[in-house]
Amino acid sequence: MTRLDDDFEPAPALNYVPRILVVDLSGDDGVALQQLAVVMKQPIPAVVHELIRRAMPRQNGHVGYKNTCSSCGKEYAAIRRAIPGKRSYCSDCRATGEPAADRARDYRERKAKERQ
Ligand SMILES: [Zn+2]
Fold it and tell me: CA–CA separation, 34 vs 9, rounded Å?
């Protein structure tokens, strides 16, 4: 019995880094990429290059830190170490506006103390 893939030979392993990358984008991805290009003031290939660079492990082996969210208490991955004594938030809490809510709470507490 012949198999459909009998005619195919595996491609030889590349001994060079390819210079062209073909990426299949959805419509939303394409729009997001165009918006990023505007925000970063870079042409789209440069934006793709930067996104790949940021997604790669660091060359010095640094992979980031595990910080604890000041709001929900969950651990999250971060590039920088949390500063002791300062609040840090996970992306979920940032999205729901926890940092601003905490700042507003602090402000009300300070104002309440001033009135005493
Ligand atoms: Zn959180």
Answer: 38
Positive/negative CA dihedral, 83, 84, 86, 89: positive
**Number of independent structural domains in the chain:** 2
How many angstroms does the Cα of residue 78 sit away from the middle of ligand 1?
12
Q: Is the dihedral of CA 83, 89, 94, 97 positive or negative?
A: negative
User: Which residues line ion ligand 1, judged by CB < 5 Å?
Assistant: 69, 71-72, 90, 93
44-57 confidence digits (pLDDT tens): 989 988 888 877 77
The verdict on residue 43 lying in a domain is yes
Q: Which domain holds residue 37?
A: 22-56
Average pLDDT value for residue range 7-35: 82
Q: Are residues 74 and 114 in the same domain?
A: yes
Segment 63-84 mean pLDDT: 89
38 lies in some domain: yes
